[in-house]
Design brief:
There is one protein chain. This protein is of the alpha+beta class. The protein has helices spanning 20-35, 48-55, 61-72, 108-120, 125-133, 181-184, 227-231, 237-254; strands spanning 9-11, 43-46, 79-85, 101-105, 143-149, 155-160, 171-177, 191-195, 201-205, 211-216, 219-224, 258-265, 268-276. It has 2 domains: 9-149, ATP-grasp fold, A domain (Dna Ligase, domain 1, 2-Layer Sandwich); 155-276, 2-Layer Sandwich (D-amino Acid Aminotransferase, Chain A, domain 1), CATH 3.30.470. It contains 8 helices and 13 strands. The protein has a 6-stranded antiparallel sheet. The protein has a 5-stranded antiparallel sheet with strand order 1-2-5-3-4. Strands 10-11 form a two-stranded antiparallel ribbon. Strand 12 and strand 13 (268-276) form a beta hairpin. The chain starts with 8 loop residues before the first strand and ends in a 10-residue tail after the last strand. 43% of the residues are buried.
Amino acid sequence: MFTLMSEPLYWLNDDRCRVAANVGNKAAALAQLTLSRYHVPLGFAITVDALAEITDCTNNASSLFSDIREALKQLPRPWIARSSATVEDSETASFAGMFTSVLGLMTEDSVLDALRIIAGSKHNPALIKYALSKQIESKQIRVAALIQALVVPEASGVAFSRHPRTFENKIVIEATIGLADILVDGSVSPDLISVLPDGEITVERVGSKTSKSVFEYEHLVRVHTTSSEQRALSISLVTARTIATILQSIERDLGRPQDIEWAQASGKIFVVQSRSITTPPRIPLT
């Protein structure tokens, strides 16, 4: 049995949250960006040891539940619960989409249920197969969790600080209306914008955004986009240049080309994930 750490939760603005061995790579990277004053949604990490205590239903679990409930009171609703494994988002293995995320949580009990789902996702056969292809044994996979306020954006997407196929020095942005879960699962073909380091736009391509993911009446729903939404880019070219500038800065700070997930809300660009480029893009990139 794992030995429980003295503090099972670390907020992203806590320097101790940068230790990936305790909170996983995703949370550690976001803690680094939070401390570097990028816009990162407020949240906290549940350590690998604490999540193990919860899923193993040890005597400490009830105390942990109490700690989590108290932390949630400081976090605006709705919430998102995400995995933060010690093996994902690394320099050699992304595990993109293989661990579970649960969006639009409104109750404390739903968060606790989501944590159990996240912990169990490491047993996914596809995940184990991918791990073995990267010479990672299942016993090496330890999972922490990340609970954040869910940014409800006007637009969101992913962006690469280098072309992910050719590794050219250009920023490639994929964007869609609303939440990016609809992009990540392949339900829409997103807009594509390519930006050179000096801010020159070299590609503008409108995707077939026939639907969007939005949070309405305390529920995450998918609705049809209007014809005008389908014909226009999800973001302005000014916003695209802003994302490019942020991404170049993150690459410098983290020391490697980055693949980020971003969200535009309230006049800000929030960074909701940052990892080294290790996987091919979701759509053909120009």
